[in-house]
Amino acid sequence: MGADSGDSKHTKAHSTGRRQFLKSFFGLSAMVETKRAEAGGIPLGSFVWADLRTGQVGFPTGTSVKPGLPGSLMKLVCAAAIRQENLLPANETFECKGSILIHKRRYSCQIAHGRLDLIQAIGHSCNVFFVQAAQALSAAMFVAYARKFGLDRSVSGYASGPFPSSAQGESQLYVLGLAEDLQPQALQILQLSAVIGSRGKPPALFSAQDPDSAEAPV
User: Fold this and answer.
1) Per-residue confidence of the chain (218 residues) as pLDDT tens digits?
2) In degrees rounded to 5, what are phi and psi of residue 49?
3) How far apart are CA 185 and CA 199, in angstroms?
4) What CATH architecture is 6-213?
5) Burial of 179 (0-12, 13-18, 19+ CB in 10 A)
6) Are the C-beta atoms of residues 107 and 131 closer than 8 Å to each other?
7) Model's pTM, two decimal places?
8) Smallest Cα–Cα separation from 130: which of 176, 83, 91?
């Protein structure tokens, strides 16, 4: 009949956001697959996976990830901190015009996304939204939540990537995966995804080549 109700539009927008997030997540995987990492990193044509029922993981030799590529998933850490600590209203929106200048640093998206709420911003992996939202979040709090997600711990016997003993600098760099002192390796990113995918109850991850490599789950 007539135009959709406000609730219907909101539901459709959030469904689109979820689909866009999955597209963004698999896009990240594709970038990892198609870029040659530095020496010791993930080779070309590789794929990293985890079975959320058993905890078994599969990955190629090397676990390093090019700096900046984990950015879409670091935004989920930011989102968790913002909502858990009630730093912003649940329906807070920010406008993305394609780029923004904050603390004398310019952050950009590939396109202007317009005005977004948190769920839509996750779906579009909107850099401009998250650098604005991150102004309510200190770097120290972001690092504390990164620790909750296990980004300071080894996974399946593989040592953690760089993790700060104390947060320094702007929270925006952490939120977009650009901080040099917080660079999770591939299995840590996989574990973060497992925590979210299992609604906070992930299995202990282990390699099929070394079943005894399982460590206490996050």
Assistant:
1) 444 555 555 555 556 555 555 544 444 443 333 333 344 454 545 677 888 889 988 876 566 666 556 668 899 999 999 999 999 998 999 999 999 999 999 999 999 999 999 999 999 999 999 999 999 999 999 999 999 999 999 988 888 999 998 887 899 999 999 998 999 988 888 899 899 889 889 999 988 778 788 888 88
2) -145, 165
3) 22
4) 3-Layer(aba) Sandwich (3.40)
5) buried
6) yes
7) 0.76
8) 176
